[in-house]
Amino acid sequence: MKIIRYVTGPIQVNTYLAYDEAAKKAFMVDPGGYAAEITKKIEELGLTLEYIVLTHGHGDHIGGVHGFQQDFPGVKVVAHQEEREMLMNGNLNSSVEMFGKPVTVDADLWVRDRETLQVGDMELTFFHTPGHTKGGMSIYVKGHVFSGDTLFRFSIGRTDFYGGDFKILINSIKDALFTLPDDTVVLPGHMDITTIGDEKRGNPFV
Hints:
Elements: E1 2-8, E2 13-20, E3 25-29, H1 36-45, E4 48-53, H2 59-62, H3 65-71, E5 76-80, H4 84-87, H5 95-99, E6 109-111, E7 116-119, E8 122-128, E9 137-141, E10 144-148, E11 151-152, E12 155-156, H6 166-175, E13 185-188, E14 194-195, H7 196-202
Parallel strand pairs: 3-4, 4-5, 5-6, 10-13
Antiparallel strand pairs: 1-2, 2-3, 7-8, 8-9, 9-10, 11-12, 13-14
């Protein structure tokens, strides 16, 4: 698995392109804004973008979905089933205040906790990690976890938005993410990468 990180959208979201180099199959995580350089890279590498996976439904993480759907008409959007309300409401997902207009997304695949999805030789496991939003999820694949806005490097996601709950967020981190091996690389929705072990030892919120 190869992973390329881009920073997109109005609030500097980490957008990840992950791909199986041999099978030429790829998935994208959290396109906060449309970036032509990502499309160019996918085309240069000869990849098939199979899925856009959303860790949660806030506007800063979904702003680029429609642009990439136009570039790759066959791509399917994946989100947790508990995030439907957020994704379908431009006021709840804050896209109106971010973009001046509502941005809504209807997923092609609504997944549940611990469901899996195969992309080339990459098996994605979806962990329901609510607390930042009701349907927030993290995606584990090959020693890496895309944590969205649940867990950051020595920090955590905000819980003062609609659907947020501090206690639930902490439980999500402890009961789901901290069950992963210590050497698991954490790829968050904002800021720098970290590891599960480092967060167990040094995250002041947990």
